[in-house]
Amino acid sequence: MPDLVGSFQTCAVRGHSIQQNLWLMRDLVEYVMDRDLPCALVSLDQEKAFDMVDHGFLSPTWGTAGVSPVTSTLCNPTKTKGLRLGKWRSKQLPFAASWVDDAIKINGIWFGYGSPESLTWNEKVDLVEARLKDFGDRYISLLGKVTVINRFVYPLLWYPGTVLAAPEGVLVRLERAVFRFLWSGKTELVRRKVLL
């Protein structure tokens, strides 16, 4: 398999992490935008990835590699997204995708122009606030609230935190939401610096 699986395959490969490809995309997009290079980033969506099989294509391909036939998928053109970058912005490109010139989301992370960090992190904080509101409607002890934060809130932040730095305004919003939940909107009995 090492001869068949490319070095850019990071998911489900020992010693690799899917974040490696996200780091690569982040860095490449920034490089292309800084130099105004003609480029496009395409996010392919596999339509019913495990249900639809094109044996006519995949079987000969795998056979050539000396592997017994396996299944394949057809791209879903309505969910395949493309981001035109640099000199290719606003150009017609010969690939069937929903093209944009500002930003696209890939694996939960926004890439492109504007402020992809803010887009990504504001979505995460919206999710955190909603989750804390769900738990806030119940009676939970202080220790229980700390457990909720550690188990159901912070894990939402680890993944994007490995790819994009959170903007200062987002950190303030996040801290406010967590402490409001922790103290039920009442007077904070322990200084934040002590708890952080």
Distance between the termini: 46 Å
Secondary structure class reads alpha+beta
Helix residue percentage: 40-55%
Average pLDDT level: 84
Number of strands: 7
Protein name: Reverse transcriptase domain-containing protein
Organism: Holothuria leucospilota
Structure description:
- This protein has 196 residues and is α+β, with helices and mostly antiparallel strands.
- The chain has 6 helices and 7 strands.
- The chain has helices at 19-35, 55-64, 116-136, 142-161, 168-182, 192-195, and strands at 39-43, 46-47, 74-75, 81-85, 98-100, 103-106, 109-112.
- The protein has a 3-stranded mixed beta sheet. Strands 2-3 form a two-stranded antiparallel sheet. A two-stranded antiparallel ribbon has the order 6-7.
- Strand 6 (103-106) and strand 7 form a beta hairpin.
- Helix 3 (116-136) packs parallel to helix 5.
- The longest helix has 21 residues, at 116-136.
- It starts with 18 loop residues before the first helix and ends with a helix.
- 13% of the residues are buried.
Question: How is this structure best summarized?
Answer:
This protein is an alpha+beta fold.
